[in-house]
Inverse folding.
């Protein structure tokens, strides 16, 4: 048996229900008979599920807990599968990891060969060009979230993001001339998307999908697991979580949201983004790695925003958007298909927590 130590405290963390009060900030997840997933393993074989498997026929103690790990998109993805004793989810897990790799090849802004990088290099486009189903879906959702958040989520900020990354590593602020230069290369008005046809109207536009691609990959990986017959699964992409059904009769998925642990018993997704996760200090002011679309600089406020939604794609994008100061959507919109179910803002300096919306099946777990 191995122990997996998760010290990424800026993101949500999965807790096995057996953990007690002693772990506090560092979350230890026990790996019960799991294996390490690898993108080099391409062999497929049939899952060994009991014939005519029905979850309600089993008690919680009849389920095994297995974890698998795989590195992609610059982070470690973790898959948790709870399945009847004797079943083997390995083949499904390998397909899920391969699906993540496929999305990385589409959406990475680090890989020069990725589809999105090639799409940007070919601009400007006099006519719309065909893109893959994955890129089309990501761009369409990005457009939707941009409009729903009054521009606080903007995937065309790639040029500004690259400038801020360089300055962030050097622990300095960009010059005014550099800021003015990159601002001319940003704006959703330069991106057109309809169906599988997309178009960039200006050369030099760089699309950065870092605020949505991991959530999208998590969703697609979970979809593979569920379609393979493993509905009681969870996928963690660096704190972007998507989870299926809880094991019948169990305490559900227990997820640490920075200062409290919550129980989730129905499928959903959680993503956390925060200014305190990574920051630099310049002239006494803290600046986050998360870019403010209005200023071209990192955010200076220190809050963690957690979003609970039906899909991790939505949770990931809205968590990024609502890290940027501005108004939260009306309560009547929360819970609809294209909006989060709930938004939670935690201020680590005051420990104040504010909620918008509701997690219908949640219960806080006291420590």
């Amino acid at each position: 048996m191995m122990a997996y130590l998760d010290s990424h405290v800026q993101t949500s963390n999965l807790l096995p229900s057996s953990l007690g009060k002693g772990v506090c900030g560092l979350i230890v997840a026990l790996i019960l008979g799991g294996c390490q997933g690898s993108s080099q393993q391409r062999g497929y074989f049939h899952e060994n599920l009991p014939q005519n498997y029905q979850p309600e026929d089993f008690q919680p103690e009849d389920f095994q807990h297995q974890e698998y790990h795989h590195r992609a998109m610059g982070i470690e993805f973790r898959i948790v599968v709870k399945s009847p004793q004797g079943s083997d989810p390995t083949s499904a897990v390998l397909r899920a990891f391969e699906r993540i790799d496929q999305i990385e090849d589409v959406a990475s802004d680090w890989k020069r060969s990725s589809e999105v990088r090639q799409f940007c290099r070919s601009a400007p486009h006099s006519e719309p060009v065909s893109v893959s189903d994955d890129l089309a879906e990501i761009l369409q959702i990005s457009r939707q979230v941009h409009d729903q958040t009054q521009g606080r989520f903007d995937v065309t900020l790639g040029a500004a993001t690259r400038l801020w990354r360089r300055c962030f590593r050097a622990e300095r602020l960009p010059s005014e001339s550099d800021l003015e230069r990159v601002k001319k290369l940003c704006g959703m008005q330069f991106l057109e998307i309809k169906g599988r046809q997309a178009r960039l109207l200006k050369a030099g536009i760089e699309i950065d999908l870092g605020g949505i691609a991991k959530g999208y990959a998590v969703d697609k990986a979970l979809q593979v697991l569920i379609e393979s017959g493993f509905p009681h699964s969870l996928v963690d992409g660096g704190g972007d979580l998507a989870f299926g059904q809880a094991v019948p009769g169990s305490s559900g998925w227990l997820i640490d949201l920075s200062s409290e642990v919550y129980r989730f018993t129905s499928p959903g997704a959680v993503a956390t983004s925060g200014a305190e996760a990574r920051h630099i200090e310049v002239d006494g002011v803290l600046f986050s790695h998360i870019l403010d679309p209005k200023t071209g600089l990192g955010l200076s406020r220190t809050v963690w925003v957690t979003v609970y939604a039906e899909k991790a794609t939505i949770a990931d994008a809205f968590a990024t958007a609502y890290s940027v100061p501005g108004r939260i959507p009306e309560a009547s919109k929360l819970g609809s298909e294209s909006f989060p179910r709930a938004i939670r803002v935690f201020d680590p300096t005051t420990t104040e927590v504010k909620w918008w919306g509701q997690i219908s099946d949640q219960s806080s777990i006291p420590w």
In short: Residues 1-49 have pLDDT under 50 and may be disordered. The longest strand covers residues 63-72.
